[in-house]
C-alpha cells in the first residue's frame, strides 16, 4: 500500500512514497502507521500489526485513535492530549516516548505531522512504533553486569581491606609466617580483581567491535602443551590430560595472548567442571577441496556429565554458568568474541565420552579487515 501519492511514469517518487521507491512498508523493521487528512488509517504495516496484535481488516479505514489506542504512563489518552489535527499549526510531530497499548504493553512511539504548507492543515500523520523488549533486554543485561561485578568485587576487596587493616593495626603481634600468609591472600585477591577488570574491558571491546588482534605466528600444539604443563605443575595428575596433534598443521597467524586466553578458559572449564580425561585434539581444518587446509581446529572435551541439551544455545551468552562453582559467567562469552575477531567460529556439543566438547576453528589467514 502506498504511503504517499502516486507519481507519473518516469518521474521521481514524491517524498514519503515508499512503493515508488520499491519498498514495501511490510518489509520495514519498525511499526509504521499512517493516517490521512481525515484521521483515517491508510497504512498499518506488518510490524505494527504484530506489535499491536491486530489484523489489517481491523484497522485500515478506522480512525487513528480507535485503530491505535494509546495511553501515557499515567493512563491519559495520548491522541486527545496531542490533538495532531487540531493542535498548534506550527507543530511538526511528537518526540519518541513510552506509551501503553490496551492490555498494558509498553511501546516506544513517535509521530510526524506532514503538512502541505509549513502552517497548513495536516495531510498525513506518520507514526512509528517500536517494541521495548530489545531495550529492556539491554537494560537487564547492563543491570546483571553491574550486579555481577559488584558481587565479584565485594568478596576480594573485603578480604584485602580486612587483612591490610589487621596488619597495620597489629603488625608486631604476628609472626613472619602469619604475615606472609595474609599478604599472599591479599595478593591472590588483587589478582582476582585484576582478572575481573580485564574481563570487563574485553567485553567492552567485543561489544563495540574494538577488540584488537595482533597477529603473529602461533604454534597451537606448543601453546596447548604449555597449559597442560602448568596444570601438572600445579598438582593435576599428568594422565588427566591427553593431547593429540595431527601433523602437519597449516601455518597459523593469530594473537598469541588471546589464543592463550581461549585455551586457558576452555581447559580450565574441562578441569573444573568436567570429569575423567581432558582430551585436546589439534587438527587441520579441512577444506571442501581435497588436499587443502583452511585453518586449525582445537577440540577440548571431557568425560563428565556434559551440558544439558536445553542449555547449549545459552553457553556463549553472558552470565551463563554450567555449575555453581563460582566464576562470573563471562568467560565463554569472551572466548566466542576472541575467536570471531580472528575470523573463526566456535561450537559446543557432547563429547564421545559423554562430557562437554568445545571446538573452535581459526582460519590460516583472516579477512583483510581483521588483519
TrEMBL record:
It is an enzyme of class 2 (transferase). Residues 148-366 form the Histidine kinase domain. Pfam families: HATPase_c (PF02518), HisKA (PF00512), PAS_4 (PF08448). Signal peptide: none annotated. It comes from the Bacteria. GO terms for cellular component: plasma membrane. Residues 26-62 form the PAS domain. It is found in: Cell membrane. One of its GO terms (molecular function) is phosphorelay sensor kinase activity. Gene3D superfamilies: 1.10.287.130, Histidine kinase-like ATPase, C-terminal domain, PAS domain. Residues 1-22, 284-306 are annotated as: Disordered. It catalyses: ATP + protein L-histidine = ADP + protein N-phospho-L-histidine. Keywords: Kinase, Phosphoprotein, Transferase, Two-component regulatory system. InterPro entries: HATPase_C_sf (IPR036890), HATPase_dom (IPR003594), His_kinase_dom (IPR005467), HisK_dim/P_dom (IPR003661), HisK_dim/P_sf (IPR036097), PAS (IPR000014), PAS-like_dom_sf (IPR035965), PAS_4 (IPR013656). Its EC number is 2.7.13.3. PANTHER family: HISTIDINE KINASE 1, TWO-COMPONENT HISTIDINE KINASE. This is histidine kinase.
